[in-house]
């Protein structure tokens, strides 16, 4: 339960005083503002601010295409057209600012998405809290035998217990030592910028993260994907639910064209065309490598 | 007079229906929303949307620095500290979206600022309007004798008259030909994406341009500078006035540290220190090149 | 014929003096260095410098994946895997710097690709040459009846002749006036930064353009596409031929997965699966809009 | 001693086989290629590739300014002019690719510089080595009393001994546990992407990092600065020494205008002018805040 009563009171206070604006307003997003969506054991995602809505995407596209776009009968059709044809700039006209609390090892994956603005809590300047990510038993998975960067079966029995105990006691001990290095009676106290290096990467950090909708969709495509690590995927999924309320038309197009769709290589197109013409085409006839075939087969059958 | 009565009515309608929001609101910016600030003979700058205010900059900085920043007594002091120390990320937490109408040759300078989102009117898709930038007589300047990219004295008499007449008649003729190429009785009509190439670069285009406050300040520093070309500088100045109402504390810090300040090289520091110690230090003793000395002298005297 | 004998001699001189380096060398790219690939009537693309080769992509990927990647049997397989899974960072480890001469209206499309470094010839500082793009008769196309941003049939007879004559005489006249405004006996001469605004957008400019291979592939995907405007597509095609010699494995993967492949929406996948199962599925059963169906049908049949 | 004999042999082999190229070559940089510059106890910086040299900066600038730049007598003068006037694009025409081994907490500061390409060793995919940063006794500093993000006096005696012992034993224990979680007899073995979260942030990682010279100078200005954390500053200093050999003219201009220079606010300019005119101006007369005055005084005296 990551939120203290004080924190909840603070959020409710922020939500209690609406103000007037002439800007585009997304009612779906207003309902999310400031509220913490809990993720993992101590993390959260909160919407701090946003700019634009579905209509803002359409408006920007019509600036580009001028009167010519008027024949597209409605906003939904235009948004789907833009998504289908990779016209990314109208989606860049929406922006969102999130407050995220997340384990450091998740933050290190996340920051690889460079087209975003970030203000992270500074452990040079301030002292980190005693909060560590400890996986649920259901997430304590073995190394995958087939995928070098994936998980296999869930650990059980003594092995699971031993791993959990280690994670817990190590985190506690490292934080104790962090505190002892920082200050103790009759000591000078190690500089915070040094003491932090003793902390493990499941400690929580937090940041403000701001990005535009196009880059957010790119983030979601990679991180809400089934191959993403579970611990970042749950953040992506929480954000995706928010986006569905913020820009429902754009989100539906994203689901259809990106998350639910698939890409075919020239070889893949050729195989499907031959199959549609009635030919039995398998791995040997495909011209694909084993890896490619495995992925093709997963969607289209052997 | 760039705005038609219809356009004015459209703006007033957009301003007539405030809505409620829980987001940060800048009253100074609300007063600007949608209104067109006229620039040059047919251009304008309009604020379409914004995110954040002075408090949002402070809020982001306090996420980074944690409890440690509480000793900075007030928001103004913190914002000035951030500006002075080139801590740019809190300023990136504010965002603005502008609708700008501008001549093509100005747009070509402007677009060199790459950290921004742009949706420009497409002349492949739609037909450009018959609107060209024709300078005021006071802006019809000769080539500078001393600066390869600057202006000298204002043209006068017959030369001024002849140049103005040329600009006007050429623009009219080119637009006539543009129209004739696009369509005429018994003709197929040249593709718009081809016909546009006959238009001169003082024709007006328009775009939505979205950027964050840090990058906007960088744009203003270069383009509101006395050395910038007049025709882009007037846009920068119009934007700067809007920014002053949007984030007054950040804008004041920007004025003090960037626009009103100056940078000194190691050599410049050395010269000033010697002068402060009572020594007469001129060009010969400075170790600077002629160009450097000219710029140093302009601020600090010979 | 864009290159003067002097220019050719300069290029040959630059090519005459190889030096020693310890860096990665692409023999295919060395053959292109400095040579001008002629594009349109006065344009060109020249490789000025490059960093990396196919092996550099593999090397960067192996840094990321460590010993684990050793089981991928060869470089080609790894490069294809990276391309298939949108692992873009290894491709970013290659960089190319081009010198391009191009009409201004093409440059305005090109610059929309923001993740690149650009140094353009300055018409504030210097005087532009008298060189304009005049289309070949085969490129003088009518506006498309079905596509708002495309071309239809080639113009013929009197219309073609009249359009060509206009383009030629207008360019000549505008350049004459440009020169007359810049300087004439007994005149001060208009500032270059002002006089340039009278020039039409088919005048040639030039720039150094530097980007990484990932972003270059993105540029090629959009600009070497059949829907891109012909006048930028020929530049993209010239660059694509250079890339094929520079990084042949990466280029082949790009051709297979991006240029020759296709994307399917969730709806498109569903239609194909039903067809593969023997069902006749047409527009009415597809759940697609007319536009989507038209594009789907173009690849997969009605 | 970070480099094994095998690693040294590999580097010497890579350096043993020069090849011919027509590209710009920097002799100063060739001498650095592949060699590891040792940093901290197990880290290093190695140049893997580079593009351009001082002449390439000049060449790009001359494309922009055309014939007009010929009056600048020499390359050094032009490079200093570009640096002085913040003309950043010619510096972007040079690129460098580094292989860096560094502690995770340093990597987390470094990655905040977003305009760069990065391929980091993946701890999802592969197993990290048992290498941790343990500070030299001289770097084991107390928290600064005056600067929230800085260091004070060096720890001594029992406190220093205790801190060092903790850092060492914690690192050893955490790595032991990491190995035990990954695999042990009769165990399935925890997924690598999970086990890594138990490792402290002084463990070493490595990456390929590629950026252009303009952004590299920006990185050096912030990270080679006296206020940067020591552990990242030593990397910046190692890189700065390499840059001095790569592009000596650009590096000298950077030293003079950025590292050795200073910025003055409008208030600072006013104070200095009054002092130069003979007036005694102190804090009370300056109009500055206490913090600003402290920084001003450090350069210019009370």
From TrEMBL, chains A, B, C, D:
The keyword Protein transport belongs to this UniProt entry's keyword annotation: no
Q: Which residues form the active site?
A: 223
List the CDD domains. ThyX
UniProt GO molecular function: thymidylate synthase (FAD) activity
Q: Its function?
A: Catalyzes the reductive methylation of 2'-deoxyuridine-5'-monophosphate (dUMP) to 2'-deoxythymidine-5'-monophosphate (dTMP) while utilizing 5,10-methylenetetrahydrofolate (mTHF) as the methyl donor, and NADPH and FADH(2) as the reductant.
Name of the gene? thyX
* Ranges that cross the membrane: none
In the record, the note on similarity to other proteins reads: Belongs to the thymidylate synthase ThyX family.
Which cofactors does this protein require? Answer: FAD
Q: Which reaction does it catalyse?
A: dUMP + (6R)-5,10-methylene-5,6,7,8-tetrahydrofolate + NADPH + H(+) = dTMP + (6S)-5,6,7,8-tetrahydrofolate + NADP(+)
A Gene Ontology biological process noted in the UniProt record is: methylation
InterPro entries in the record: Thymidylate_synthase_ThyX, Thymidylate_synthase_ThyX_sf
Look up and give the organism this protein is from.
Answer: Ruixingdingia sedimenti
Q: Name it.
A: Flavin-dependent thymidylate synthase
């Amino acid at each position: 339960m990551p939120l203290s009563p004080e924190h909840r009171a603070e959020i409710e206070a922020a939500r209690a005083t609406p103000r007037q604006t002439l800007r585009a307003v997304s009612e779906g997003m207003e309902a999310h503002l400031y509220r913490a969506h809990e993720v993992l054991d101590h993390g959260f995602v909160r919407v701090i601010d946003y700019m634009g809505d579905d209509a803002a995407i359409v408006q920007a596209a019509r600036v580009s295409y001028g009167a010519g776009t008027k024949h597209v009968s409605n906003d939904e059709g235009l948004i789907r057209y833009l998504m289908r044809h990779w016209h990314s700039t109208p989606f860049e006209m929406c922006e969102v600012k999130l407050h995220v609390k997340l384990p450091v090892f998740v933050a290190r994956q996340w920051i690889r998405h460079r087209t975003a603005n970030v203000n992270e809590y500074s452990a040079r300047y301030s002292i980190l809290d005693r909060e560590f990510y400890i996986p649920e038993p259901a997430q304590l998975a073995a190394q995958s035998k087939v995928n070098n960067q994936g998980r296999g079966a869930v650990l059980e029995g003594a092995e699971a217990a031993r791993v959990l105990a280690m994670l817990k006691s190590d985190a506690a001990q490292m934080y104790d030592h962090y505190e002892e290095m920082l200050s103790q009676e009759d000591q000078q106290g190690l500089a915070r910028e040094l003491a932090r290096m003793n902390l493990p990467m499941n400690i929580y950090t937090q940041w403000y993260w701001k990005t535009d909708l196009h880059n957010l969709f790119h983030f979601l495509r990679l991180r809400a994907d089934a191959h993403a690590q579970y611990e970042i995927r749950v953040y992506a999924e929480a954000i995706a639910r928010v986006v569905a309320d913020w820009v429902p038309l754009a989100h539906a197009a994203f689901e259809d064209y990106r998350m639910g769709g698939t890409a075919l290589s020239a070889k893949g197109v050729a195989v499907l065309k031959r199959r549609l013409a009635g030919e039995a085409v398998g791995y040997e006839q495909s011209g694909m490598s084993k890896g490619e075939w495995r992925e093709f087969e997963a969607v289209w059958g052997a």
